[in-house]
Design goal:
Length: 246
């Protein structure tokens, strides 16, 4: 299937519906502290303020989660540094969601997935020269260009420089929710304004996986009925216009 002229894939993952705190319309406002229990019982490595665990509900065939060991919601610089260093060294993809942008748990964490997808690489781009970019150094700044309809800021450069620049933009943002997608030496930050679930275009929370090019469905009927036009509508409703205005 094609979305904005670039290829995407649709996957049916019924097991992911069973996640506690899954971003559905009936999600409650509070939940128990599941993250601390996961880190205490499932960590396979820790260091630099981070911990690595398996993912019980993977988006891909080979995937792990990288967590902040401190109970924070915002992604700290150390977490970004470790994740992007692994992306650069091992050619993995890094995906990240905040609450309001598909995260199911309120602890800063990132998905590390084996492999890359072509969607973002095939979209047109143009320089990004917004005032918010002032003082950001050692990376090349761009944004996705039309026909992609919403603001997606790209950072290309060494992993450490991209981590610093991404952390700077996270601290400069005014919206609450955002996604990141990072692969092949380029990190994308997508601020979010729209509903977490852009129905009727897409029945589940739109996350970094979908912006990466992998649209994940929990129910078979919407998976079978999906169209490129509907997926494009979901993106339009979820992000900011290209000029960054509300």
């Amino acid at each position: 299937m094609s979305v904005f002229g670039a290829p995407v894939e649709l996957v049916w993952l019924p097991r992911r519906k069973a996640r506690a705190g899954a971003p559905r319309a009936d999600r409650p406002p509070f939940q128990p502290d599941r993250a601390s229990q996961i880190l205490a019982t499932e960590s396979v490595w820790s260091g630099h303020g981070c911990a690595l665990t398996p993912n019980r509900w993977p988006l891909g065939d080979r995937e792990v989660l990288l967590w902040a060991t401190e109970p924070v919601r915002e992604w700290p610089l150390a977490l970004l540094e470790v994740a992007l260093a692994l992306e650069e060294r091992d050619r993995v993809t890094v995906l990240g969601n905040t609450i309001g942008a598909a995260a199911s748990i309120p602890r800063a964490h990132l998905h590390l997935i084996d492999g890359e997808l072509p969607f973002l690489a095939e979209l047109a781009r143009e320089p990004w020269t917004a005032d918010a970019a002032q003082g950001i150094e050692d990376v090349e700044l761009s944004r996705l260009a039309p026909p992609f309809p919403v603001l997606a800021v790209g950072l290309r450069g060494p992993a450490a420089a991209r981590a610093r620049a991404t952390h700077t933009l996270i601290r400069r943002r005014l919206c609450a929710s955002f996604n990141i997608i990072s692969q092949n030496g380029e990190t994308w930050l997508v601020p979010r304004r729209g509903p977490e679930i852009p129905a009727p275009h897409f029945p589940f929370a739109l996350g970094a996986a979908e912006l990466w090019g992998r649209w994940c469905y929990g129910d078979r009927a919407p998976f079978d009925a999906a169209t490129g036009a509907a997926l494009e509508g979901a993106v339009r409703e979820s992000g900011f216009p290209l000029d960054g205005a509300p």
